[in-house]
Amino acid sequence: MSTESVMPTLREFVIEREWGQFHSAANLAKSISIESGELLECFQWDDQANIDRVKEELADVLTYAYLLADKIGLDPAEIILEKLQKTRTKYPVEKARGRSTKYDQL
To answer: Which run of H or E residues covers position 19?
Structure first.
């Protein structure tokens, strides 16, 4: 399922429940943070997290991220590709391959 098919489904889900009134950009950003904390909690005591829980929490994070992008008029695929291009410049393959060093330390 692509972004193009996910967004109409998410919009319909929100409209059916009249939840749009609660979806300010700030509230959606807060929700991303809250859900990402729950995702992280899956790995709190064991790096071998329960994949079903991870899947559920990751879906929540992505749902709120997509809703936030939609709320502020951004296309998730487009902004990911734009950011990836900037990151390519910061982390050229010849310097960054196999390293986790921050770009300003390469």
So the answer is: none
d(CA 23, CA 69): 11
Please state the pTM of the whole predicted model.
0.90
Segment 50-78 mean pLDDT: 97
For the purposes of burial, counting CB atoms within 10 Å of the CB of 68, is it exposed (0-12), middle (13-18) or buried (19 or more)? buried
pLDDT band at 1 (very low <50, low <70, confident <90, very high): low
For every residue of 23-37, DSSP letters joined together read --HHHHHHHHHHHHH
Q: Which two tokens stand for residue 96?
A: 């960054």
**DSSP 8-state secondary structure symbol assigned to residue 67:** H
Residue found by looking up tokens 């909690």 in the block:
41
Tokens of 52: 């079903």
